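sorry for the late reply, my laptop died twice this morning and i had to redo everyting from scratch. anyway the thing you sent over, i finally got around to it. pasting the sequence first so we're on the same page, its 357 residues, then the predicted structure underneath. double check i copied it right bc i was rushing
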Amino acid sequence: MAHAKRPIRGATVNTDSRRFNLPQTEADGDWLDARGDVDGAPARLRTTVTVEHPRTIISRNTSPDIGFDRSINPYRGCEHGCIYCFARPTHAFHDLSPGLDFESRLFAKPEAADLLRAELRKPGYTVAPIALGTNTDPYQPIESDWRITRSIIEVLHATDHPLTITTKSDRVVRDIDLLADMAAKGLAGVAMSITSLDPKIASTIEPRAPHPERRLKAVRALADAGVPVYVSIAPIIPAITDHELEHLVARAAGAGARACFFIPVRLPHEVAPLFREWLDTHFPDRAGKVMATIASLRGGKDNDPEFFTRMRGSGPWADLLRTRFRIATRKHGLVHRPPPLRTDLFRPPAGAQGELF
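ok and here's the structure:
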């Protein structure tokens, strides 16, 4: 069923979600939309930010198809509003909808840097790259004011701890002073997510993310500063963005990216019905074709949660994507894998007593 297009939001509705009945957290401030209402359009949503007080800040995973075992998410929810975001279902943990709530009712962790210092100084801590941006974007709009991501990078910079960042925002360039210094020591790498070069398509699937050209300029700025930068073409959406694959690889190479990678669209849990609603609203002429192709990629279903195949897809359509990608990356010299980051330079943060002197 098609719903009204809501200005600069991704989801068209707030769908029902799983309920976990968790206690409420402390609300603190809000961030208002900068643009005025449009006559005849649905009312704009106010973006609220709630302060969260976690006990720890490093999340661990043991997934065999993910190249890191620890990550930090400065924020829950993401105002970029990407309709395909696989992290949307996590909002159900707050008894909120993965739909409009996910992109308008955000959670911030301002104590993240202090928590990180405490975890890094624990006896027995073993070093491995910490990934930022694996769930929600660390450089979404509210980072301009909250600067939590910056504070985390400052801790990792001071301790020579390796770091990777995934983002679809050129705000990452703001922290190029820290990232360039870390990269010179082999401690940092950045993946810039660019899904489409078509501004109209990009603004529909990622309504509050920066323009694709701004992201390419950020790739160039990072590369010029010596920061290893990669382009993530993720996700590829059949019949909407897949035709851009070769062009995206070419532009990434031209901007100085060292490599590219791609992931076919994933639709776990509540993301699938949200994505269908979005298709019916924005692309009713091809909604059936899109979902049929996704089913061919995902073993006849909307989503395949199995390790390895969830990131690659399966079947003839997935094979064709991989062939096209391999030809394009070889043509533009993007064939080498990112080098491993160094782990031997780490120096634990000083304890509270040491920080007095």
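Confidence is low (pLDDT under 50) at residues 18-40, 353-357.
thats about all i looked at so far, will dig more tmrw
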